[in-house]
Amino acid sequence: MKEALGFVEVRGMASAVNIADAMLKAANVKLLGIGKARGSGWMSVQVSGDVGAIKAAAETGKSLAIENGVYISSLIIPRPADGIGNLINKGVVPSDKRQATKESQAILENPQPSDKNKDEFSEKGELVASSSSSEVTPPKKQSKK
Predict the structure, then answer these.
(1) 3-class SS at 129?
(2) What Cα–Cα distance (Å) separates residue 132 from each residue in 2, 10, 12, 103, 136?
(3) Displacement of CA 125 from its chain's centroid (Å)
(4) What is the rounded distance in angstroms from the CA atom of residue 134 to the CA atom of residue 49?
(5) Which domains occur in the chain, in start order?
(6) What are the counts of helices (DSSP H) followed by strands (DSSP E) for the chain?
(7) pTM of this prediction?
């Protein structure tokens, strides 16, 4: 059985991290990533899990985003069609600049219960997975040559 997908779009990276933290604490969901959406500073928080957990997490994220004045939109896909996970992993949704991890595809295709998530950053410094701790360590900056 495939896992449901949930998305909450907000303005700003700090807001997206705050929303992701609240969503992960509100329900038993897995963070697929935080990516740049198309727009001026828009960020998309992407989670997966069972439908009830996704609804609870998305409602929590939406409420917090509205409270902070950063809410753009939200979406819940209860039973994603084949290929939707591939779009997310190829970076087509929400950003064509981010490469999602193989772990994200595995979660969508073969959901497994997990007690821990690990902090992972993409090569571009975007948070793609977070542990349950509330502290997020920023990625090291690469020098431009």
Answers:
(1) strand
(2) 23, 21, 21, 17, 10
(3) 14
(4) 20
(5) 4-129 (3.30.70.1710)
(6) 4, 6
(7) 0.61
